Amino acid sequence: MTQARKLAAGNWKMNGNRAALAELEALARAHPDPSVDILICPPATLIQTASAAMADTAIQIGGQDCHAKESGAHTGDISADMLIDAGATSVILGHSERREDHEESSEDVRAKARTAQAAGLVAIICVGESLDQREANNTLDIIGGQLAASLPDGCTAANTVVAYEPIWAIGTGKVPTTAQIDEVHDFIRTRLIRRFGEAEGGALPLLYGGSVKPGNAVEIFATDNVDGALVGGASLKAGDFSPIISALEAST
Ligand code: 13P
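YS: structure for the whole thing
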């Protein structure tokens, strides 16, 4: 199977103002020539300044959402093209917080992903089960359904990343066992290959997200089919995110 590229991605969620750009500068200084891709998705207000500040570094900047339409009367929303204009290379789509807070369905996520990819962004598409769904032994059914409905046709290793984020692990300090991560990632990989073929489905980066910290990153990155992480809280400080990046580099 083709080796997927490795990606350490940070999702700042609704955290950070201009003062937080100092963390990006520190991260860039700590990783001048990384062997893995590094992406930070700050709040929309910081994308343009962050991408300008990171222009001569290895750190890429992404968005946390975009609209499914290319432009128009959608007050408060941001288009894929605007993200690119501001310097973003990627966009997180279908995060469980958006599925919950904004009632985004997998069909909404698929429409957004199609628009984002067409504009030239990498779509980082999130899937994940709730605690109730896991305890009812429905995890793989839920993930399979979300994958099938959230990913548009024609996804490639170049324009799509899938992030497995069990909802119960996000911001809780609870992490699945590596056996649980392995089971879900193996399942996702099989589905991706079946739908998009060995060359694309086999090489499409598959991230784990949910309470990734410096202390558990080495173990998580040693798991099969884990090509990196989507990190929330521990991406806010360079001192926390940097050892996670180093652990991913060491795992390659
Ligand atoms: P935490 O790393 O804070 O658990 O957040 C994970 C997440 O939701 C990243 O998108």
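YS: worth flagging: The radius of gyration is 17 Å.
IM: good catch. Also The pocket of 1,3-dihydroxyacetonephosphate is lined by residues 11, 95, 165, 170-171, 209-212, 230-234 (CB under 6 Å).
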